[in-house]
Structures
1.
Amino acid sequence: MTLLGKLTWQAIPLHEPLPLFSGAAVVIIMVAIVAWVVIKGYLPYLWREWITSVDHKRIGVMYCILAGVMLLRGFIDAIMMRTQQVMAYNAPGFLPPSHFAQVFSAHGTIMIFFVAMPFVIGLMNVIVPLQLGVRDVAFPTLNSVSFWLTAAGALLVNLSLVVGEFDRTGWLPYPPLSELAYSPGVGVDYYCWSLQISGVGTLMTGINFVTTILKLRAPGMHYTRMPMFCWTALASNLLIVAAFPVLTATLAMLLLDRYVGFHFFTDTGGGNSMMFMNLIWAWGHPEVYILVLPAFGIYSEVVSTFSSKPLFGYRSMIYATMAICIISFMVWLHHFFTMGAGADVNAIFGIASMIIAVPTGVKIFNWLFTMYGGSVRFTTPMLWSIGFIVTFAIGGLTGVLLAVPPADFQLHNSVFLVAHFHNVIIGAVIFGVFAGYVYWFPKAFGFTLDERLGKWAFWLWLIGFWVAWGPGYVVGLEGMTRRLQHYDVAEWHPWLVVAEGGVLIILLGIIAQIAQIVVSVRTREQRRDVTGDPWDGRNLEWATASPPPPFNFAVLPDVTDQEPYWDMKARAREIGQLTRPEPEYQPIHMPRNSPTGFVTAFLAVVSGFALIWHIWWLVVLGLAGAYATFVVFAWRDHDEELIPAEEVARLDRANRAVRSAALHHRQLRREVETQREPRQ
Amino acid sequence: MSAFAGGDAAIDRKRSSAAAGHVGLALIALVLLGQLAGCGRAQLQPAGPISDAERKILLDSVVIMLAIVIPTIFATLGVAWWYRASNPRARRLPDFVYSGRVELIVWSIPTLVIIFLGGIAWISSHDLDPAQPLPSKAAPLDIQVVSLDWKWLFIYPRLGIASVNRLEVPAGVPLHLMVTSASVWNAFWVPQLGSMLYCMNGMSGTLYLEADRPGVYRGESAMISGDGFADMHFDTDAVTQEQFNAWVTSTRNAGPVLDDPAYRGLLRQSVPPHPYTYRSVRQGLFADIVMQRLPPGEGPRGAAPNVHPVGLK
């Protein structure tokens, strides 16, 4: 037993130029960014306003930034895989099998856990408290801990690029391949500890948001007045609370197998690998809906706003959301019809899976009827939504097809399956978070994003997706299985070349998105959202300034309708002035910033790294430090900051002034229009 | 008044052209699927009763769903475009937020489709249960399939011979496959014959398949099993009964013997450069693998990558 456990110089891939250079590049970029921040003197600002912030809006933005950065990392993996398969027809390509396996495992892990999850959770963080008309989430410091633990998991995954190796068994480490006998390296340990750490963060997010939505809502906001995004966020977080402990327990069992010689999943010594398959999908299938339900919520908001109509069939949408939430727990077996469970079991799970298509279909029709009779504006978020409906209709079709067991016997684990889940995850989740990102960006930052580049990004992504994954369906039907490092079938090759082209089109889409940010930031003064309501919105997030003050609302709004802000605007137009007279401003207590989250996460990275490399003294040190941090936080006796009444008044008067001006402007315009009407 | 009439006519024209569009797209989809069926050499070009039935289910399900998916896509695009803010002829209904009749329809359409497809799923799951023997006059041929790191072992227990990385079968005879793994999971899959099945250590699964006609059908593993995974494919040679008998005779007369030491050699992680056969197999070998009386493969015995792709031409 050495001081550094299993860690030696051999862990650094000095003999493999590709990971060495890419790892070195990442390290250099990170060091450069940190150095730039320190030299420019931004560090105190970052520490004060962001790193230790417990403001849900700041935390939400940091989640989205994490997701964006990780999207780039996961996308580089995607380009490498597509390129390898173009080169590897009767040839070894440029990635040896051990490296190729790390790339596809990292791609899946990163895209699900560190892109889709943080993006969805980030948008929920920014928007849900605003839509509920409240000042923060139920447990603000816990929220910061959640974010930093997620970031800690992401850091550990990326650390494996430079120190050691990543998992080589796919994005779900099926035993016995992931057991110590067949994966003796640290790859599976990197995977497990990263997800254990970030999984705790996600579980706490779930608890936090379930509590927030159930217990903290503006006066008058009954369940049947909650915006659809809050409903889907509630469903999603209920699923997190129910499903993530299963993931944690499953990975804990795998870790016990690997670290102390247990036999949960070994197939020898009384273990059973089929148990892992069942458990991991008992989490994994709800996970799909944890991601997609909030995306459905975003589409509901976007389609309603840009059709200038309330959501059609609001109650029906609630039933559909909650039906999906419940049924999603009863279908996990469809991920392994080919295990040989027998006809009755397969058929029952197949039919249960198909039943989910009913509420999902209802949602699609309700969006359609929301547009029907509306006044549709083709803004970027609306394009993403329409692109989603078209793309997702096909993805849903192939999904129901895979739920027919005998069809699945011929499609399971083929590229057809991979095309299906990219079809739904890109087509529904990623399109959804992009729609939400463009839609809510002005709320978070106070200026809108460039529409022209946004539309370019949409079309490039949409076309790129189909060019990349249309061929996936074809080669899947030609018998190509997933995760092939090389192959010798001539028919597959041209399709894989086309798919590479699709990935490059998506790359252009991503470049357009980066350009969109750069251009929009540079021209932000022209694109200021002064009214706080750039899209003529309907829910409470648009009732406050952009960006909102730290306390969101000077006085909690009174909700009397299912679309509170639309209702307020309508009444204000009727009476020709703001609905509420200026209130008597009170000082507001806001939770105080806290470094607890950052410190805990730092210690979690230390402990995780030490556990991966068997550096036991460091494990003890890290865990003791994390516990000490928790104790220090628990003993705090000053946890709130007071925002004086004058400050609240100043900020709210500014907000009222612009809204009043907007109202009068609209009033004048309307008068001009009504005068003109008779002449028409 | 005239303006309204004009609008209606335009809507009618739009409707009929949209309907024509649906039919057109359905035809294109069918033609594409047909093309695939012609040019692909896998699931859509079946060579046995199981894959044939599965192809039929696959195509039927797709067509049933396209009947609802294609109109939905066109309706979405059509409604979005017609109700664009700049269209002066669109009739705005800002208060159309609920309609019991519409709700009934939007819940019924998917429900009816799913009841229909659910029926197909139930019946076909039972008809095509992999463990169900095939109706045939010929007695089924027993084959024991063992996935190893990274090769396939096919044992013919009644014939006392075995083959590595080539599955020789007589056409027109049902195959009774018993499937297991000697190390990690794999999935046994010959797309042109049908149903894949997981190979798992300590367990044996049953799969019935049949090749209708002679031919060479690609077989592969459909479950990641480590560094040699991409080389875990094999040819299934379906031949006539006479040719099969001749193959059995020649196999019995040449090649090594598969006894316990030879099996331990097979267990080691490797990718054999080409297929070969064993002239005899120790009795009860498969049962000993399944019952773990013979221990599973030991894995790489070291952290470094342990195989580089071979078998590349």
Note: Residues 382-531 of chain A form one domain.
2.
Amino acid sequence: MERLGVGIGWRPEIDLTVERLPGVDFVEVVAENLRPDHLPESVVLLRERGVPVLPHAVSLSLGGADPVDPARVAHLGALAEVLDAPLVSDHVCFVRAGGLDSGHLMPVPRTREALDVLVANVRAAQADLPVPLALENVAALLDWPGGELTEGRFLAELVARTDCLLLVDVANLHANARNLGTDVDRFLDEIPLERLAYVHVAGGVEHQGVYHDTHAHAVRPEVLEVLARLRERVDPPGVLLERDDDYPADAELAAELAAIRAVVG
Amino acid sequence: MTGPQRDRLAAAQAELLRALLAGGEPPAGFDRDRLRIEARALLNKRRGIVAALRPDLVEALGERFRPLFDDYARAHPRREGTRMRQDAAAFAEWAAARGELEPPRKRRWWQRRAT
């Protein structure tokens, strides 16, 4: 797996911050917010410096019942090519159903039947992408009834059947441990860590006993603890900090990157 | 190959989103409290994005922004293919139609007020 190092999510609101923060080895861009033929100047600058820029999609709805939309896959592929990205990613989730758009990454039922549909969608997307596809575990506030597999087994089978890469979000894993009772160690033991492309770290907030993965708050120590438990098992090729709102001062983001670096060494 | 599976999954996912976004019946087997928490989280996210896209609406409506947006959102779940900017514009129209917001002015900046 390609070494990526420590990175941060590039967002237009913090473009200058990302450019001048020390120790940013790679960045990620939200694929739906960029046009391959009109890249933001800041992203072009980062590419000119040799910083890898990885497109991260949020709208393929690979866990949805509908076949994947070829136009969305083509957009993601075109971005990968223009950015010369080593890989692209999206989530194990659905965002659309019954004509409605949830506006968020919804968990899929952990049943064999839902897995079959997900596998078919992932294969269809892979067939049209120029680079490998990594898939990310999402944070859930609720659980589907009738789950037949643990989340770790579900992801392991997905990898076995599609040969996709994994993007493990340790904040999402913490969220599911807190909200749904997911066993963090079991999850990390069950997933094929040799297929780990990189790791996401993000901030969140606890409200009335429920952890909300907001990407608008500081990274909590419990999340870094999950990162440490992952690090006990594998040296992750990359770790990326995601911040999407309520942007703090540069120094605060730099401190969070340093804290991540301290854990993964 | 995945036809029947897709149909069953489509029905289950549509039922869940209807419950979370459009006031539909809670689907069997789900924790009611969690459905409420998820519905509120989705509404908060949608309202937050609209507020970020249209600070003018937040300013014009003040404390009424939140309750009005929530009424609008529950009655108008976001349809597939609707962009957030369109959602924000639809909310502005909805609020104007209810007399909560002045309709967009036709007057240009260089024109004097009529009276």
Note: Chain B touches chain A at residues 1-2, 5-10, 12-18, 20-22, 28-31, 34-35, 37-38, 41-42, 45-46, 48-49, 52, 77-82, 84 (CB under 8 Å).
